[in-house]
Amino acid sequence: MTDTAHTPPARTPTPHYVNDAPWDPYVSEKLTAEQEKYYMAGQWKLMWWRFRRHRPAVVSALFLAFIYFTTIISEWVAPYDLQTRNIKYIFAPPQGVHLFHDGKFVGPFVYELMITRDMDTLQRVYKPDTTKPQPLRFFCSGDKYEFWNLVNGSFHFVCPAEGGTFFLAGTDRLGRDMFSRIVYAARISLTIGLIGIALSFTLALILGGLAGYYGGWVDLVVQRLTEILKSFPHLPLWLALSAALPVTWSPLLIYFGITLILALLDWPSLGRAVRGKLLSLREEDYAAAALMMGATPARIIGRHLLPGFMSHLIASATLSIPSMILAETALSFLGLGLRPPITSWGVLLNEATDINVVAVNWWLMLPVAPVILVILAYQFLGDGMRDAADPYA
Q1: Which domain holds residue 327?
Q2: Is the dihedral of CA 166, 171, 176, 177 positive or negative?
Q3: Cis peptide before 251 (omega within 30 of 0)
Q4: What is the rounded average pLDDT of the residues 130-144?
Q5: 3-state DSSP call for residue 111?
């Protein structure tokens, strides 16, 4: 009799799956090449790859690039010159652009404005005459201007019909086209942010770098200076410094004066970030090795220390540009910033301080729209750059 008590149970074989597809050696080589490309990429290339995955930041970057490009060719984009007055059409409302007239495709056109007067309020009343379409002209010759005050020209991307009007955003109290003035104002409002952040960025790198590298009394002086500047409320300080600018200065000097004020008051936050980073990086082995090899402090800071966190500084600077644009807009809106004949978005909004503007001539508030769009675009761009600069993202 066979003893089955100690007989081991039958084992079920473990299923083994084998890919019966033909082996392609180029696939593994391709994966290896992609991995090598990733691991051998530099810091800026990795930042670019991470930035491309942030869709709102990419869209915002394209939008800002388009807006800044239009500031270069403002004379071509605007249908009218900056100071062109249409005295017959004072406070005219925006004209809508149409494509079809009486069921037929005509192309982009506007209807002629009919002017009547309200005998109760004695105000002008504008109504479109739907029987008189005025086709728009493209790539045409219109108002004469001086391109960047250098070359005379009259080319425009779009012009009103001969003897007609084209007020896409209405007109102001002098009959000037608001859309054209918004386009020209973008050149001032956007460049003041770039120039201001360039000055602020330079001050932060110099003063923060010296404080972080040398320490001691240099750090003490810089830190006390930043604390004094940050202890003042920004808006009253802006107002006081702007009011101190001489009224006899030319508009160009006022422009640079406002830019310098904004830069001097914006650098402390970025300077502290630079100082904190350098305090930790100056003790690293590569910094000590550069010092022992005879490198000057300027070379150690500029060549070895700052590039290690330059991506974070650029992201921080990008987030600081909107604050400068808002500061200039606020000062000009309050009448203490830029003054005519210089035209900025704040100067345009200064003309909309009357309650009648909101109640009747609402289109004078349209300059606030590009301000909001640009600020939001910069915020999304700054978020994308900050995420791209994060090595743990």
Answers
A1: 180-389
A2: negative
A3: no
A4: 92
A5: strand
Q: Locate 56 and state its tokens.
A: 């709102």
pLDDT value for 258? 86
- 110 beta partners: 134
Instruction: Judge whether 82 lies within some domain.
Output: no
Do 325 and 371 meet the contact criterion of CB atoms below 8 Å apart?
yes
Total count of domains within the chain: 2
Angle of helix 251-281 relative to helix 216-231, nearest 10 degrees, comes to 130
Residues 196-245 have pLDDT tens digits of 888 988 898 889 888 888 888 988 999 999 888 888 887 788 778 888 88
Of 171, 190, 192, 196, the closest CA to residue 181 belongs to: 171
User: What is the arithmetic mean of pLDDT over 88-116?
Assistant: 91
Q: What pLDDT score was predicted for residue 314?
A: 80
Burial 372-386 (b: 16+ CB within 10 A, else e): eebbebbbbbbbbbb
pTM: predicted TM-score of the whole model, two decimal places? 0.83
